[in-house]
Amino acid sequence: MKVDKETHFSEVLPGGAHWSMTMKAGLALRLTDLEGGANVGMLFYNPLNPLERYNAPDSLKCQHTFKLTKGNCLYSDMGRIFCSIVEDSLGWHDTVCGNSTRQIIEDRWGATSYQAARNERTQNGLDSFLVEAAKYGLGKKDLAANVNWFSKVAPSAEGDLAFCSDASAAGAQVTLRFEMDTLVLFHTCPHPLDPSPTYEPKPVKFDVFAADPVGEDDYCRTFRPENGRGFENTEFFQQTSPATA
Predict the structure, then answer these.
(1) Predicted model pTM
(2) What angle do CA 79, 58, 124 make, to 5 degrees?
(3) Distance (Å, rounded) from C-alpha 15 to C-alpha 29?
(4) pLDDT tens by residue, 67-80
(5) Tens digits of per-residue pLDDT, 150-193?
(6) Closest among 140, 161, 139 to 152, alpha carbons compared
(7) Which of helix, strand or coil describes residue 153?
(8) I need a labelling partner for 129 at 20 to 30 A (CA). Which of 58, 114, 138, 187 fits?
(9) In a 3-state reduction of DSSP, which class is residue 152?
(10) Judging by beta carbons within 10 Å of its beta carbon (0-12, 13-18, 19+), is residue 171 exposed, middle or buried?
């Protein structure tokens, strides 16, 4: 762990692991794919009211896109913006294919328990989210469609989805700027469409630091007309809601 004036927190999350934290408005979270081929499943909640959570369909349709990249904002089901993508070296992140499950992992790579293999067990995304969600009194009914950072899934002309195994190279980064206080759950388990012949989830480094102030000409704010309205809605909420701990 590294803590200094520029980086508030820095850590490496091993492959097949999970974590959670509350990001305050004005902080940034930078994710780095250390070896290439990583996947980071992520969900967002309003810590003051966890019924407000990330809404993948609204995030895509209001920005007229199928993928997430620099400029895109991640919306809640209340029309507020949890965070904005301020930097992105990859250019394509999936938020339509959902999460790996115990059955998906077992069918593709077999099952290995923690009792037998410890940290080398075959962990899945759904159980990882449930472990982290339980720490905040949340359960299976509270999960939603998640983001899969560093994973590219492209549609064919016929509408079939194909996982792009070589999309994310070692050193790829994406940086999220948080526009409102946000509970973040995330894991480094494989994408549900990952065709790898072996279970080898990759580690990801994450850094938390202070983001630059948001101006009226901010790239994410002006990326789509809808984003401007989303920022206004979010700023009003931040100004009038109780502060989180």
Answers:
(1) 0.93
(2) 110
(3) 18
(4) 999 999 999 999 99
(5) 999 998 888 899 999 999 999 999 999 999 999 999 999 999 99
(6) 161
(7) strand
(8) 58
(9) coil
(10) exposed
